[in-house]
Design brief:
Length: 145
C-alpha cells in the first residue's frame, strides 16, 4: 500500500496508519493455552494420565509406552506449526527413546491443579460527595492549593 504524506512524498506502508496488527497469538486468550518451552538437556516428566505412546521421527506410533510421571530427558525438539512442537525424549531409566508432543510433558514431578477463577462478588458502589464548585473552594480555576 502506498501513502502520500502532506509534503507529496510517497511512502510504503504495510498497514493503514492507526491500525494495530492482530495475529493469531496477539490476544491474551490465545496465549493462555500455550505450553511452556522446554530446553534440550532438561529433565522433565511425562504428563498424561493414561501414559504416552512414543512415536518415531515420522510420527508413527512405536510399541513403547511411558506412564504418567516418568522422568525423561529432552534430547531434541522440532517445531510443528499447528500440529504442536514435538520433543525427542530419552527415559532416565534408559529403556525408552522417542518423540512426544509438548503438552505431554511437564516440568514438575506432580501435576499442578489449575486454580479455577472464583466468581468475584459484585463491586459495591460507594456514594461520592457532590462536586465542589470553584467559587466555594476559595481558589481560582486551575490554581493549586
Amino acid at each position: 500500500m502506498k501513502f502520500v504524506n502532506q509534503f507529496g512524498q510517497v511512502a510504503a506502508v504495510e498497514r493503514p496508519v492507526g491500525t494495530v496488527r492482530r495475529g493469531p497469538d496477539s490476544s491474551p486468550a490465545a496465549r493462555a493455552g500455550r505450553v511452556p518451552v522446554l530446553s534440550v538437556g532438561r529433565k522433565v516428566f511425562v504428563n498424561a494420565r493414561d501414559g504416552v505412546v512414543l512415536t518415531d521421527e515420522a510420527g508413527r506410533s512405536m510399541s513403547r509406552r511411558l506412564a504418567d510421571g516418568v522422568e525423561v530427558e529432552i534430547v531434541a525438539w522440532r517445531p510443528r506449526g499447528g500440529g504442536g512442537t514435538r520433543y525427542r525424549v530419552h527415559s532416565t531409566a534408559g529403556d525408552a527413546d522417542g518423540w512426544v508432543l509438548a503438552d505431554e510433558l511437564r516440568a514438575a514431578r506432580h501435576p499442578v491443579e489449575i486454580a479455577r477463577e472464583a466468581t468475584a462478588p459484585a463491586p459495591t458502589r460507594v456514594p461520592s460527595a457532590p462536586p465542589v464548585r470553584a467559587e466555594e473552594s476559595g481558589r481560582k480555576f486551575g490554581q493549586r492549593r
